Amino acid sequence: VIDMKQKKVSLFDMKGVPAGKEKFIPGRFTSDGAGNIYVIDRLNRRIVMVKKDGSFDKVIAPPLPASFYGFSDVKAGGGSVYGLDTVSSTVYVFDAKGSVVSKFGVSIEPGLSFPVSLAASGGFIYVLYRHSGEIGVFDGRGALQYVLSGKGFKEGELYTPSYISISADGLIYVIDGGRVQVFREVE
Question: What was the pLDDT predicted at 64?
Fold first, then answer.
């Protein structure tokens, strides 16, 4: 934890997290508006939620079918937690209790392949695709609404995208190799 006012760095200790079958190896993480932190436990194929003081709250994971390979990205907000399984090209939506509300495949278009990151805003789920350089925009039921961007090096195009985030004012930020692309959707 970095305290900018005090110019102090301290350890964020996660307390009470139940052991999994494998060693805890953290992946990506996110927080919600209440300060809760959601951390991907990569080897145990789950998301661990801790409160802002580091105390364990819950484990979030779908039933483990053979087609579930583990989470590659997680986002939280609006009372939901979103998890992306890149290998199976599936988005999982969980409620505040950690129960699966919905799940859907995100490689339904021929060009949309290898989803690497997701974000949620305004009732839509944005999925970033590494190989096609596109952003698929899905509604809450998993229906593709439209596609943003495309493969390329020019401004507004994505060549090696790896991470997507949406700010409170609706700007879409994408890490694309050695640069950050910023998109604004026009109504």
Answer: 79
Are 85 and 72 in contact, with CB atoms under 8 Å apart? yes
Cβ atoms of residues 175 and 160 within 8 Å: no
Q: Give the single-character DSSP code of 106.
A: S
Give yes or no for a contact between 26 and 44, defined as CB atoms under 8 angstroms apart.
Answer: no
pLDDT tens digits, 25-48: 999 999 998 999 999 999 999 999
Strand partners, 176: 161, 179
Residue with tokens 């194929």: 45
Q: Which residues pair with 84 in a beta bridge?
A: 73, 91
From CA 130, how far away is CA 176, in angstroms rounded?
9
Report residue 161's pLDDT band, with 50, 70 and 90 as the boundaries. Answer: very high
Tell me the C-alpha distance between 150 and 95, whole Å: 32
CA proximity to 38, closest of 67, 80, 9: 80
User: Cα separation of 9 and 33, whole Å?
Assistant: 22
Tell me the CA distances in angstroms from 12 to 28, 54, 126, one per residue in order. 15, 7, 30
